[in-house]
Amino acid sequence: MSVRVGKTDRAPSFPVAAKDALKDDQLRRNVRNATDIIRAKRTLRVGEMPDWEQLRQAASDIKTHTLAHLDHYLEQFERNCEQAGGKVHWARDADEANAIAIALIKQYSGEHAAEVIKVKTMTSDEIQMNEALERAGIRAYETDLADMIVQMSGDEPSHIVVPALHKNRFEVREIFREQMGLADLGDQPTDLTDAARRYLREKFLRVKIGISGANFAIAETGSICVVESEGNGRMCVTLPDVLISLIGIEKVVPTFQDLEVFLQLLPRSATGERMNPYNSFWTGVEPGDGPKEFHVILLDNGRTALLENECERETLGCIRCGACLNACPVYRETGGHAYGSIYSGPIGAILSPQLQSLEHSRSLPYASTLCGACYEVCPVKIDIPEILIHLRGKIVREDRTTLHGSLSAESLAMRAMSTVFLSHRRYEAAQRLAKLGQKIFERKGQLTNLPGLAGAWTEFRDLRPVPRQSFRDWWKTRAKTAPPSEKTS
Amino acid sequence: MRIALFVACYNDTLFPETGIAVTRVLERLGHTVEFPIEQTCCGQMHYNTGYRTEAVPLVRRFVSTFRDAEIVCVPSASCVAMIREHYELIAQQESDPGFLREVRSLLPRIFEFSELLIERLGVDDVGATFPHSVTYHPSCHSLRMLHVGDAPYRLLRKVRKLELIELPNREQCCGFGGTFAVKNADVSVAMLSEKNKEILKTGAEVITALDNSCLMQIYGGLHRQGSPVRTMHLAEILSHVEVDG
């Protein structure tokens, strides 16, 4: 089995990629503007819900229950989907899922040129479906406006919900002018959407195969649900003759009724809307209405490995609303590309490394101050900071098994400090030693050019030297000079 | 009341004035402060960085040091968050029922400094005077884990001659994050510069918080850019009784 998540195997570590991102002032302005707007809208729409906390709890309960019985609900989904005329395929990893999709597309294209229209699916980016299709001679058109922008500019999505969040409309205009050959295109939002509409309509009417993702798969009915804002998704799942829906196995929910909870939480968390403009549901096939053939590819790609551990399993409850990205003070500075994965921000920092058994994206669990803003906004109450700490622990344990890892400066320092803290006499000796040792680094009452990791502090920030008298020194001196009765006077 | 002070290792070593201020405030209110000299570190840095094996003995040490305390006062919200959010979980994972019992018995007796004053002692006026303009940064741990709410504001509003100025975007993290500050120094400093811009906009003379770790970060940036704005733990403001200069 070969689990892959986008291009994480080739991505630089987060601190390295972040350094580059921080230099791009335009990108940072775009990210800050966009996240500020979405955050404000979310706050407004969440604020009007008196039962928001109960909804969050209900969502968490449904996800916890479903993930504990995932095998049952997936098989129920398969039965009901096939009964309604759909066909369910199981894919262990990226290659299997792509191979299934390619075989289906070739089969249905027959003599015609193989091409597909796609509605935004992060899961297809996860398995790099577009690249696989291209290698197989299949042309894929992204039809979600932002995904289309990303595809046309040969870029990568930088946000789970708003993939082109890092681009402003002037940048988008340049891309459209070049790619659509529209020399005198205006820069107003209406100019841009009008150009996109004309370009996409032709695709919708011509291309016979559609590929979608899903927000939810309903076990009870075998139905699929996609929510979106543009209507392009609706086109993609209704106009083609053949529809292929690629779905991560964690997207299944037991009943239709469960959507009562999720469809209140998702749009408010994702885009600050009370309801998504387009909510599309489809169940199998219906003669004379919509696609004649309907296929579901259920994708594992590392997900089942997370089920074993309760803390890790929580990660799979994610409904990809992106609220944690918009709330994250780290994402706010760097944008999504620094994470080196199509799953960025706090959820990306726990999802990307876990799907790949910590083989890649190992710097991501450290790309957080554990400030807790992500957990606060998560509509399914995923305790992201706790999972980040859990993953850090796993990485430290793994590293310890190698000579290089167990002798790293950090590991040695951490072990030494723990030993020091285990005896207050050693700790007091260390305090004295620090006061002596710091002298060579003192300049104008500040510590400068500290060695090792501490140098990363003093490079950008000042630091007061360790004062002559520690608190315990003061306490001991006072205990000697003042009898207890005088202390409270 | 007899109050045991867990001053926190970094306050003990780097910010002794905070422990001194806590002692003065509590004694002024008529309480007896004790400082168990065996105390060192709560284990937060090790635990949060992934060094669980090293953190566990520190957790055990903390619990045995404060086992018999009536009340424990901690002038560091992030240490209290470590204790409250993780000690029980650690004890459970250690499969040591005696240890778990001790943790569960100790937890309700642990208070962050502002929590202790407002919630446990029911005091908002500690008789302080501080003739300066002050802005308050709600540290992430105090805000989202301890949920101290308006406790620090209530204390600050009762300080005579103090002008409290609201910090814009106050709930945004300062970028410290323990080892994050050095492992991801570039991002940490980018976050810090946003925070410090807001602090400078207020025109306040003093920036205060419940965590000296955040204040160390904020000071690091402000001082490097030559700003005269002072960083002070809330306890230091509350310990002031006379008009200074």
Describe the structure.
The complex is a heterodimer of chains A (489) and B (245). Chain A is α/β, with parallel strands linked by helices and 489 residues long. Chain A folds into two domains: 298 residues, NagB/RpiA/CoA transferase-like (Rossmann fold, 3-Layer(aba) Sandwich); 76 residues, no CATH class. Chain A contains 24 helices and twelve strands. Chain A has a six-stranded parallel β-sheet with strand order 1-10-7-4-2-3, sandwiched between helices. In chain A, strands 8-5-6-9 form a four-stranded mixed β-sheet. Chain A has a two-stranded antiparallel sheet with strand order 11-12. In chain A, a hairpin with a 4-residue loop joins strand 5 and strand 6. By secondary structure, chain B is an alpha/beta fold. Chain B folds into two domains: 119 residues, Rossmann fold (3-Layer(aba) Sandwich), CATH 3.40.50; 107 residues, 3-Layer(aba) Sandwich (Rossmann fold). Chain B has a four-stranded parallel β-sheet, sandwiched between helices. A four-stranded parallel β-sheet of chain B has the order 6-5-7-8, with helices on both faces. In chain B, helix 12 links the parallel strand 7 and strand 8. In chain B, helix 4 crosses helix 6 and helix 11 crosses helix 12. In chain B, 59% of the residues are buried. The interface between A and B is large, with 68 and 72 residues.
Low-pLDDT segments, ≥5 res of chain B: none
Kindly provide the name of the CATH class of the largest domain in chain B. Answer: Alpha Beta
The proportion of strand residues of chain B reads: 5-15%
- Kindly identify the CATH topology of the largest domain in chain A: Rossmann fold
Structural class of chain A: alpha/beta
Q: Helicity range of the residues of chain B?
A: 40-55%
What do the pLDDT scores of chain A average to?
94
Termini gap of chain A: 73 Å
The number of helical elements of chain A comes to 24
State the order of secondary-structure elements of chain B, H for helix, E for strand: EHHEHHEHHEHEHHEHHEHEH
Rg result of chain A: 27 Å
For the sheet with most strands of chain A, the description reads: 6 strands, parallel
